[in-house]
Design a protein that fits this description.
The chain is an all-alpha fold. It is 68% helix and 0% strand. It contains 20 helices and no strands. It is globular.
């Protein structure tokens, strides 16, 4: 639990910020205020961790706070007035936060209750450097495998495509090895890897992968260059501005793609947004566009739609739906042909009452599935168990990293999907289990290669010429 009470947090400064926020926003309820302060605390932990670890636990907690605390707070405190009614918070904030706050807090506690000194997130830099020196071509093999697999994934159905989708992420593992394992930074591999994710995001109009991998990449750069406070603060401000810009432009950008316009023509995109609503500065910054952007980070409106549907119209499932989710997350479709699909539209409509068009994807989220199956109290307990499961997987990587030192880098591959709370739980668990299984198989097949740095360390320590 000590990872949650980091001594790097300056408590007087945090308490002063809490007082200033309370004075400036005196009209917000105590529920909203507590949600904001919990989020701020989690964001500070994440900020302080950059440059020291690959912050999986802090990212998991921060993303939960953004989508279940910050988005709902903005909605409850003004932006819902400019929102389509089905996308508004459908229950009073006392009812929503009475479930969301303890559920998210218990999830975060589950992440940290057995985390120790953030096991599974600290890297052994010297061991990685020796590994890359021993196998200098492997990072480029990972990059080539990732780029090739990303192209291949579009030619297969969802089950086979998922394997190539995971393999496609190996390009980032290769990039991380190059960043951490070479004294001289290699520019062209960075251009190919980062350019590929930017290109695919622009082509599809989907930016979740870009943002997530950007955060992990920044964390790895910070590990190498040891950014100071000023550099991190400037980087944070720049990153926030870019993400806000993506949120504002994203809807118009997708519409531009849909209408077969030039998706890269920012002038046309700006004009389209301006024509939609001329009431703000260039039609880009006004309450309507802010409300539209907020709904993309506000997973709370879906939870409130569930709350007005369950149990009033549909009874609590008492674990029956959770069994389907576990089946979908663990079993391959060849053994469970009728299992839930990613973005299962009928399931979403059933429990939320929100009618979505074909091709539109929204997720109930882990918080929503916990409520549907176990009500408020049981849902909170389930969220603690889910956080504990994530932590145990990180601990598994930690235990094996003494033998396979580059294994910690693969936690970014395993968790880059689970850190997104807006996804349906069956997809999150499917990615978590399948990617972990794939990495275990890879390690077993080439365990001598992956264990080489540890073997050499033992050899040097013992003075023996026999690695055994």
């Amino acid at each position: 639990m000590r990872s949650l009470f980091n001594t790097n947090i300056h408590l007087p400064a945090y308490l002063l910020a809490a007082l200033i926020i309370r004075i400036l926003f005196i009209e917000i309820t105590w529920f909203s205020y507590v949600a904001v302060m919990l989020s701020l605390y989690q964001f500070i932990l994440l900020f302080n961790s950059i440059g020291h670890i690959i912050p999986v636990r802090y990212l998991l907690g921060s993303f939960m706070c953004i989508q279940f605390f910050i988005g709902p707070v903005l909605a409850y405190n003004g932006l819902d007035a400019y929102q389509y009614f089905m996308y508004t918070m459908r229950v009073p904030q006392e009812q929503y936060f009475s479930y969301a706050i303890p559920a998210v807090v218990l999830f975060i506690l589950g992440l940290h209750v057995n985390a120790g000194k953030l096991k599974g997130e600290f890297l052994d830099r010297p061991a990685i450097e020796r590994y890359v020196q021993r196998f200098p071509k492997l990072p480029y093999f990972f990059i080539g495998l990732g780029l090739f697999s990303s192209v291949l994934s579009s030619f297969f159905n969802s089950d086979f495509a998922f394997v190539f989708y995971i393999l496609g992420s190996f390009k980032f593992i290769g990039l991380f090895l190059i960043i951490l394992g070479n004294r001289k930074l290699k520019v062209w591999p960075m251009v190919f890897v980062i350019g590929s994710i930017i290109s695919s995001s622009l082509g599809q109009g989907m930016f979740h992968d870009l943002i997530t991998w950007a955060i992990f990449s920044i964390s790895v750069f910070a590990l190498r260059f040891k950014f100071n406070f000023r550099v991190k603060l400037i980087g944070l401000l720049g990153f926030v501005i870019i993400v806000m810009g993506i949120q504002i432009f994203k809807g118009s950008y997708r519409l531009s793609i849909k209408n077969n316009k030039n998706a890269a023509d920012l002038e046309k995109i700006s004009k389209l947004q301006y024509d939609t609503d001329k009431s703000g500065v260039l039609g880009l910054v006004n309450f309507k566009t802010l409300a539209s952007s907020n709904v993309r980070i506000n997973q709370g409106f879906i939870i409130t739609n569930i709350m007005v549907t369950v149990p009033q119209k549909i009874p609590f499932e008492n674990g029956k739906e959770m069994m389907k989710i576990l089946e979908a997350g663990i079993m391959p479709r060849i053994l469970a042909p009728n299992k839930l699909r990613a973005g299962d539209r009928p399931t979403f409509i059933k429990y939320t009452g929100i009618r979505i068009d074909e091709g539109t994807s929204m997720g109930i989220s882990s918080l929503g599935d916990a409520y549907i199956n176990f009500a408020e109290l049981g849902g909170c307990i389930f969220m603690f168990v889910l956080g504990f499961l994530y932590s145990e997987i990180l601990n598994l990587f930690y235990r094996q990293s003494s033998t396979y030192p580059i294994l910690i880098l693969f936690t970014s591959l395993v968790f880059y999907y689970p850190i997104r709370p807006d996804c349906e739980l069956q997809t999150i668990l499917g990615h978590l289990f399948k990617s972990t299984f794939l990495i275990i198989i890879m390690i077993k097949l080439w365990k001598y290669n992956f264990a080489m740095p540890a073997i050499f360390d033992k050899k040097e320590f013992s003075g023996s010429d026999n690695p055994a």
